[in-house]
Design brief:
By secondary structure, the chain is mainly alpha-helical. The chain has 22 helices and 7 strands. Helix content is about 50%, strand content about 5%.
Length: about 550
């Protein structure tokens, strides 16, 4: 056993020595394999057929990726740390890795500049890359390769369970895209949670059972997720981010995210064991001082490709068969990975780049300044944004029904909302963030992805959280000094879009409720809403 370990260590040292030699002399390569910051998959298709004698890997940290939106410090740090850990793993396996560090004096600061430098230096016969997760990056790749006359091979990202071509076929066969139909197809296609041709438990989803609130007693003692204290690599990255991006939003004080596959799998096991049983019932609940509750905290690891969604799905299904967690929790978790994640990726690539220009509701207000500071008297927003600035995280209902809802009701220009979400969350990659914002949160796509805008008054927040208990505003009031801005803007939103939604099958009742208001009430609400909009809500 000891001899085997010594031999392995010797092999690693030789591989590392060979890598350093190859990097030093910048030999011409056959294939330059590009590994992007959100493609840290040890089983990546980009590595298929890699020949260590004539191929090399290229990775680059560039300031552009932190500054094209005003990125949260933790978002920058998690990408850089995960990339550096992946670089070291590759080298340990014997791969030659040409790594352009952010603090390299020669670093040109942009993806295109650094790739062009690598092409001139190494003169590859071909570039190889897995499908990028952002249209902007895809176009930069294509343009740079074309300008330098180098063939570019784009390989499918097998981290996903369905290819983009397969999704296009699904979309082409339907008049309207809807998650529910896609999700059922994926269940049938994979056999996950299926009993023959029927869903396990007799239902495709258990949404009706997964909307419980904690009530006045609160959640009680919630098992806290496992934390990953920064190692030497992460500590170095934290110092770099603080020095290079001191004015960016957010904090690195509590940085404890998974940055390796080993960390990610440990986080998955912790979630399955300690929080999955109650995840389903309380996935829409919120509570002051509880940023994670029963949520998995796995999205960043999955989006960086540190954790295979198949592994996460299988372990969740195993927990059901072992009677460790109820079906409603298992199905809710599986739907996010097997359904929603695959669905929105397909939507993104089906409609980009035109998708980014959509603004179906004609929203033109500016994003309030407090989205970057948390400085507002609205307790729900102060709590959610404050938590986000501290950790780079908020769970899905906080994103949809707090920060997203307020922007929707206020009528914020969708591109501004998109830029904020892409900047502020550690798990933000555009293919997943943009459709969630445009299609789900802001209804900017006019119903391409979701059947209705998700609107509610302050009473929803009162029912699903304790935020209102610590707030000076009353969720049952739409006018007056103590009127809840959510409630005011809810009615104002319905008035602004009354004709659009009067015959909508899912919003018609809300419009009919609106029409019960007197002309005087309508005028008072519109006036108060105009005041909220004109002040920018910078309380």
């Amino acid at each position: 056993m000891l001899r085997d370990r010594m031999q392995a260590a010797g092999g690693n040292r030789l591989a590392a020595k060979r890598t350093r030699w190859l990097e030093r002399y910048n030999f011409c390569v056959r294939h330059l394999v590009l590994i992007l910051g959100d493609q840290l998959d040890r089983r990546s298709a980009a590595l298929d057929g890699f020949d260590p004698t004539c191929d090399a890997i290229w990775m680059a940290e560039v300031a552009e990726e932190a500054t094209h939106v005003w990125s949260h410090k933790a978002r920058i740090a998690i990408f850089l740390s995960a990339m550096r850990h992946f670089r070291d793993w590759l080298r340990q396996q014997g791969y030659t890795v040409h790594y352009h560090a952010l603090d390299d004096p020669a670093n040109g600061g942009s993806f295109a500049t650094e790739l062009a430098r690598a092409i001139r230096t190494h003169q590859p016969q071909k570039l190889i890359v897995v499908e990028p997760g952002e249209y902007r990056v895809q176009q930069s790749l294509l343009q740079t390769a074309r300008e330098h006359g180098v063939p570019l091979e784009v390989r499918p990202d097998r981290h996903f369970l369905i290819t983009l071509d397969e999704f296009r076929q699904h979309a082409a066969a339907r008049k309207q895209l809807r998650l529910e139909f896609f999700y059922r197809e994926m269940r049938q296609r994979t056999g996950i949670l299926m009993d023959g041709k029927q869903p396990v438990g007799g239902a495709w989803n258990f949404d009706a059972e997964n909307r419980q609130a904690f009530g006045k007693q609160g959640p009680g003692l919630v098992p806290q997720p496992v934390r990953f204290m920064p190692d030497a690599i992460t500590q170095e990255v934290i110092r770099l981010v603080e020095a290079r991006f001191p004015n960016h939003p957010g904090s690195l004080r509590d940085f404890d995210w998974a940055v390796t596959p080993e960390d990610a799998e440990r986080a998955l096991d912790d979630f399955i064991e300690n929080r999955l049983p109650l995840f389903g019932a309380y996935q829409d609940a919120m509570w002051t001082g509880e940023p994670y509750l029963y949520h998995s905290r796995l999205s960043s690891a999955i989006n960086l490709k540190l954790l295979d969604p198949r592994v996460a799905i299988q372990k969740a299904v195993d927990a059901y068969h072992q009677k460790h967690a109820p079906l409603q929790s298992i199905e809710g978790f599986v739907r996010q990975l097997l359904g929603w994640r695959e669905y929105i990726r397909g939507v993104y690539w089906l409609y980009m780049p035109e998708y980014l220009e959509r603004n179906a509701l004609g929203a033109d207000a500016n994003l309030p300044d407090f989205y970057w500071t948390g400085a507002t008297d609205m307790n729900c927003l102060r709590e959610t944004i404050g938590q986000t600035l501290r950790y780079g995280f908020a769970h899905h209902i906080q994103r949809l029904m707090v920060t997203g809802l307020y922007a929707l009701l206020l009528g914020v220009q969708p591109k501004q909302v998109h830029a904020w979400y892409l900047a502020i969350y550690v798990d933000a990659v555009e293919w997943v963030e943009l459709p969630n914002v445009y299609g789900m949160s802001q209804f900017a796509d006019g119903g391409l992805m979701a059947s209705k805008p998700y609107i509610a008054s302050g009473k929803y927040l009162q029912r699903m959280s304790n935020y209102c208990a610590g707030c000076r505003y009353r969720p049952d009031r739409a006018v007056g000094e103590d009127a809840c801005p959510f409630t005011t803007l809810y009615w104002d939103f319905l008035m602004r879009h009354e004709r659009l939604f009067e015959n909508h099958p899912r919003l018609g009742q809300q419009v009919r409720n609106l029409r019960r208001l007197s002309a005087a009430d309508r005028a008072a609400i519109r006036a108060h809403a105009a005041q909220l909009n004109s002040t920018g809500q910078t309380y």
